[in-house]
Amino acid sequence: MTVVDEIAGVASRLAVLLTAGVAPTAALGYLARLDGDTDAAEVPTEGADTVLRRGPLARWTARRHASTEGDVDAVIRAVARSARAGVPIGSAISAAAAGLPSREKGAWDALAAAWTVATESGAPLAGCLRAIATSLRDIAEVQRELEVALAGPRSTARLVAALPVIAVVFGAIMGFDTVQVLFFSPLGLACLALGVALLVAAWRWNGALVRAAGRADPAPGLDIELVAIAMTGGASVSRARSIVAGSGRPVDESQTAEILDLSTRAGVPAVELLRAEAEQRRREARSAGRERAATAAVQLMLPLSVCVLPSFMLLGVAPLLIAVVTSTFDGLA
């Protein structure tokens, strides 16, 4: 299970608790296991406005949870305590996730935006959290498929990168002083420098390909989903867009305008059309993720053939050949 799956689970559990009538702050306390915890010393004591304006919450959270980066429970505990101190929950979620890696931060930010929009528009918060949980699970599935597709090429690259060391050890066992050749002869030093440079280039190339394949919107269609949520709460179109923009999510004005125009011409509810479009965006994101994973699996063969295999020849095979030739000539002399 990925961290994004865990965050989706948090959203689902919160939705269930809210549906059952539990207050948001209390629901967060239950998830964070803070029942009966009255320790307020760990929470900034300034008022909510001061906390949000000066930003100490983000610094406090990053410092306190530096050793547990990516820990979902740690973020929930920080949010629950901040909520008890009076900080708006949407802002508390964003601040608590400020120091996390981009993938986890994107998922937390999506949850924070949904919470903010539902709260400001008066839309049912539980339904909004369920929609966000569905979106995050779709993204997590794409990420898992990507990891599976890249596992083979990554393992092959690591194995081949270890072959130069194996070749050097094998040469030494056979009685050839490959280490002496590699580190103490001009030709060996040239092979060492070029081979290491190729390995570094392959490592960076692989990293760039994997990052490009994994780069995606952590919540595709979220802006459209949030507009639908705001309109469910009774907000007008312009007010809904304003609320969503205020939550930190840019709104695709042309896309929403096209959907709203279709709603007007066809006489159908705009909210349902917006949600259908958001669902379509998620399906397209899953399809694009699979395509990127398949493409990356093939592209990772390029660093292997262009950099890693030549590096193996330079670091493993060439010193062995040089040692064999040198020892042969020394024997003849």
Characterize the structure shown.
The protein is an all-alpha fold. It has a domain at 3-39 and 52-141. The protein has 15 helices and no strands. It has helices at residues 3-19, 24-31, 48-54, 56-64, 72-84, 89-96, 102-121, 125-173, 178-184, 186-214, 222-232, 237-246, 253-266, 270-299, 301-332. Helix 4 packs across helix 6 (89-96) and helix 9 (178-184) packs across helix 10. It is elongated. It is found in: Cell membrane.
Question: How would you describe this structure in keywords?
Answer:
333 residues; membrane
Q: What's the gist of this structure?
A:
It is found in: Cell membrane. The chain has a domain at 3-39 and 52-141.
Helix/strand layout:
Elements: H1 3-19, H2 24-31, H3 48-54, H4 56-64, H5 72-84, H6 89-96, H7 102-121, H8 125-173, H9 178-184, H10 186-214, H11 222-232, H12 237-246, H13 253-266, H14 270-299, H15 301-332
Helix pairs in contact: 1-2, 1-7, 1-8, 2-5, 4-6, 5-6, 6-7, 7-8, 7-11, 7-12, 8-10, 8-11, 8-14, 8-15, 9-10, 9-15, 10-14, 10-15, 11-12, 11-14, 13-14
Pfam family, one: T2SSF
Subcellular location: Cell membrane
InterPro entries: T2SS_GspF_dom
